[in-house]
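Forum: Protein Structure Q&A
Topic: Joint prediction for protein chains with partners

I've read a bunch of threads here and the consensus seems to be that you should model interacting components together rather than docking separate models afterwards. I'd like to see that in practice. Below is the full input, 476 residues plus whatever partners are listed. Could one of the regulars post the assembled result?
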Amino acid sequence: MSTDLPESAVPPPTDSSEPSSAPTRRTFIATSTAVGGVVLAGGVIGGTLLGPEEAGAAAAAPSSRVSLTVNGTRRTVTVDNRTSLLDLLREYFGLTGSKKGCNAGACGACTVLVDGHRVNACLTLAVRMEGVEVTTIEGLADGDQLHPLQ
Amino acid sequence: MYPFAYTRVSDTREALNAGRRGGRYIAGGTTLVDLMRETVERPETLVDISGLPLREVTATERGGLRIGALVTMSQAAADRKVRSLYPVISEALELSASAQLRNMATIGGNIMQRTRCTYFRDVTAACNKREPGSGCAAREGFNRMHAILGTSDDCVATHPSDVAVAFAALEASVHLLGPDGERTLPFADFLLRPGSTPNREQAVQRGELITAVEIPALPRPLRSGYLKVRDRQSYEFALTSAAVALHVSGGVIREAKVAAGGVGTVPWKLPAVEQHLVGERPSEALWAAAVARAAEGARPLRHNRFKPELLQRTVERQLRIVGGTK
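Posted by a regular:
Agreed with the consensus. Here's the joint model:
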């Protein structure tokens, strides 16, 4: 069962409006990487600082529109083609249950289900996810009944 | 990662058109995306071929198997025909990478993957494969994992694939589709030794698309299997490996197919071992004698002087496992 979200993009999670409270590790990471993967990103892609050449090119970086189902909810977003599924989930959709460990397909901390098969979200380009169903750790609960993995 | 254009194609004609214009095919993406992030690979256009109808494993009329280029590693490993006809293929696949990667990576992509040499992946290091003429940091560097066979002054990187060792042993062929039509290459001609052009790793032309890997029919009964020796039991590349297939009839070995991994710049076929086995009766003494020349021509590096002997022992052990000791 999927519910459709009408908006074309959900703003990335950002706690930067919080006034004086000291940043926690999570809010620090969220605010410093929140623009990752968004079309308007200038110098940061998926939380990675870019070299000058890459950053220069980023201004006009090609982007694409993609529709996918995440934990039962249909989402349509426009992403920089370089955005990984992991960055889309974490920084665009705020689903931080999938972790960024090695970001190279080695550790498995980013594992999600794509159409029922486990894959490394860090090595999956978000732009390739047209029409697929993604299930993250957040999506495994059955109502209020948590999945053993949770 | 550098910016790139992205296009998805739905048939091979579309794919070839995009490929001819310089587009880079992406299937599972497990190597390519990783190397793009390291800026080792900098394609301007990615052509997503995952929608092409190349996902079948089919029996050939000749009695072999045809594995579509987009069959995933996990799909091929689980396929009943593969498991019953060529266990060496499913075993090699299941000993590769991780379950997540095997769900993504494809057979075509597997044989197109680049080396795992750490200096190739490090854009600050000299590497003739990544940047022709820049030198080879591995020669005098940390080279425990590197090749001892098929090396050149310019490159000592191993081919990382396990299933390619099985393909080499079984004398598979690679079906390619290009602007000028189809062609088929013996697997031995598909992967290239480095020589003075280590930047060229496969004999594919610009825009050519792999459509399938075909395994030839072999006399039955055929026993086969894959042994991988590595520093840990999971998620590690081979120090040495052996793919063995034997057809024994009337107590005599009639066919022997043997190749080694982890030691060569390409999967290393061992014809001298094969020739020693054919016409003989399986025995402990035969296995030991057959591998005497397995490491012939090896040129070990500073940190991998153990490899020639380990190679011999690996092949001997796998001959014993597949061939029995009677």
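The radius of gyration of chain A is 15 Å.
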